[in-house]
Amino acid sequence: MDWYKELELEEGAGPDEVKKAYRRLAKKYHPDLHGNTTEANEKFNRIQEAYEGLMSLLSEAPEAENKTSASETVAPRKRRVRTPRNFHARYSGEK
User: Fold this and answer.
1) Rg from Cα positions in the chain
2) Cβ(25)–Cβ(47) under 8 Å?
3) Helix and strand element counts for the chain (H, E)
4) Contacts 24+ apart (CB under 8 A), 74-80
5) Among candidates 50, 55, 42, which has minimal Cα distance to 16?
């Protein structure tokens, strides 16, 4: 199946164009608007499959270009949590 053709797009369309086309066609061919006919269900499922496939392809491409080695990654700083001064006196069970 040609996902671009299914979403009525030209080859090489970006994620924003894919999302717009999906929303437009999903609204147009939604089964609830066509009485849950088999044709509407099949068309809607093909549109949904094309959208998911294209979005996964488009999201993988930038990740492959921007991969960094483990030595280049920086761990996030741990946030220090402060307890109130009277916490232990309050919750230790002693009165």
Assistant:
1) 25
2) yes
3) 4, 0
4) none
5) 55
Q: Give phi and psi for 87, each to the nearest 5.
A: -60, -50
The pLDDT of residue 48 is 92
Tokens representing 24 are 């437009």
Map out the domains of the chain with their CATH numbers: 3-63 (1.10.287.110)
From CA 42, how far away is CA 9, in angstroms rounded?
19
**Predicted confidence (pLDDT) per residue in 10-52, tens digit:** 888 888 998 999 999 988 888 888 777 888 888 889 999 999 9
**Residue 83 vs residues 2, 77, 79, 91: alpha-carbon distances, Å:** 58, 19, 13, 12
Predicted confidence (pLDDT) per residue in 78-93, tens digit? 777 777 777 777 777 6
For residue 20 the two structure tokens come to: 């717009």
Per-residue pLDDT, 65: 52
